[in-house]
Structure formats: C-alpha cells, structure tokens
Write a structure and sequence with these properties.
The structure is a single chain. This protein has 244 residues and is of the alpha+beta class. It has 9 helices and 7 strands, in the order E-E-H-H-H-H-H-E-H-H-H-H-E-E-E-E. A hairpin with a 2-residue loop joins strand 1 and strand 2. The longest helix has 14 residues.
C-alpha cells in the first residue's frame, strides 16, 4: 500500500489521515481533543522535521475534521507554515499517482488555465478536464486512429479473441506514453491554417472556446497527432481521435 493518499489530485500522508479517523471513532462526541491533536503532531515528528506532505496533511485534518476549540487553536499554532493546494502539484499528482503516467509530460500555462476556466459558459474545471482527458485516452477506441485503436491493431490485441486483452492494451498504451507529450491548446482562432502555430490545431476544427482541447504526440507508437476533446459544459462525452 502506498504511503500516500490522493484526494482531489493532491498527495497526503496516509498514516496521519488514518490516525485521525481512528481518533474520531473512539468514545466521545467525534471531535479531536487536545490529547488527540498531540498524537497527530507526534506521529509526524520522527526526527527529520515535518515534511511538506505531512504539514499539508495536518492542515487538511484541521479543515475537514471536528476539533475542540482548544485542540484546534493548539494544533494551528504548532504548524508554522500554511500548506495551500498548488495547482501545479495537483496536476503532477493526477498524472503520476492517479494515472501512473510518471513520464508523460504536460505543457500548459497557469495563465491559460485561468483564462479558460473564466470563460462565461465553462462549467468544467481544468482538473476535471484533465482527469476526463486521461481516462478518455485510456478507454476510448471509437475512432479508428485513436491511440487505443492503433494499439489494438498494431499488437493484434483484439478484445474477445486474445486472453487478457484489456490488460495488455493498457500495458502497451502506458509503455508508449512513457515518451509522449500532452499539451493544453490555447483558446485562440486557428481557422486560418496558413498561420504558423507552435502546436497542431485539431484536425476536425473543434474550438477551444467550446471545449478543453489537449494535443498528444506519441512518437514511439506512430507519427499520428492526437486530440482529446472535453466539452466545457459537461453535456457531451469526451472523445479522442488521431490524424497523420
């Protein structure tokens, strides 16, 4: 079992969270007492100092569990640094921990994410869009040139005909994602294909004003370029397709 627990794309110390659960399960009113808070702090004081993850975990407990007033004041005062949930850390944890794609690179800018989340009709956060994009990449084979479809045909891993086909498809996909690059496409007009872009606009002409659009290049699999489309309203299912 991992030392970490991932909640909403952020990494926390599993041991500390499990201790908090144990403490509120005992007798009493379900609140963490001063003695309980002392146990929580002592659980991370192992001689190395409190790590960023441990510190973040204690703040998570402070914000999400019931405390007696004295216990909350004491524990808050014992932590010297606040632990805000950084978007960059959440993105890394989603890719590396939730989806086990440690070497998949993602190109984005925080300014672009903020601008796209602020679009008036956008109802899907970037974090949700990223999760949907990764899940779609692994599972959607509707398009004949989607990564999953290419894997099935290149390696002849036909579901229903090959034992453990799904397991092998996922394994091959992850293998090729080791040197792949994913990019959040900017919200701009790319209808004039004579312009020089530093990215590949979607072949079917989808607009970033209407969808979160991720471009994917996976050179070890093929010379295709792929696009993952996530509807901003959440009303349509995400999909992926490729073109070479």
């Amino acid at each position: 079992m991992s030392f970490y627990k991932i909640i909403d794309g952020q990494r926390y110390d599993r041991k500390v969270l499990e201790l908090a659960e144990e403490l509120i399960q005992g007798q009493g009113d379900g609140r963490i007492s001063r003695d309980d808070a002392t146990q929580l702090l002592e659980s991370v004081q192992d001689g190395r100092g409190i790590t960023e993850t441990e510190n973040r975990s204690l703040f998570y407990i402070l914000e999400n569990y019931k405390f007696t007033d004295s216990a909350k004041e004491w524990l808050s005062g014992s932590l010297s640094v606040n632990a805000p949930i950084e978007l960059t850390a959440r993105i890394s944890n989603i890719i590396e921990d939730e989806y086990d794609m440690q070497r998949l690179s993602l190109e984005y800018s925080l300014e672009e994410i903020e601008a796209q989340e602020a679009l008036p009709h956008n109802q899907v956060s970037f974090i949700k869009a990223l999760r949907l994009a990764l899940e779609t990449l692994l599972t959607d084979g509707e398009d004949a040139e989607a990564p999953r479809s290419i894997i099935i045909n290149v390696y002849e891993l036909f579901p229903g005909e090959v034992d453990r086909a799904e397991e092998l498809i996922q394994s091959r996909l992850r293998e090729h994602l080791m040197d792949a690059s994913l990019q959040l496409l900017p919200n701009m007009d790319w209808t004039d294909r004579d312009q020089d872009f530093d990215f590949n606009p979607p072949e079917n002409g989808e607009s970033a004003a209407d969808s979160w659009i991720f471009g994917l290049y996976m050179p070890s699999l093929s010379d295709h370029f792929y696009w993952i489309i996530v509807d901003r309203t959440g009303g349509a299912s995400p999909y992926v397709y490729g073109f070479n």
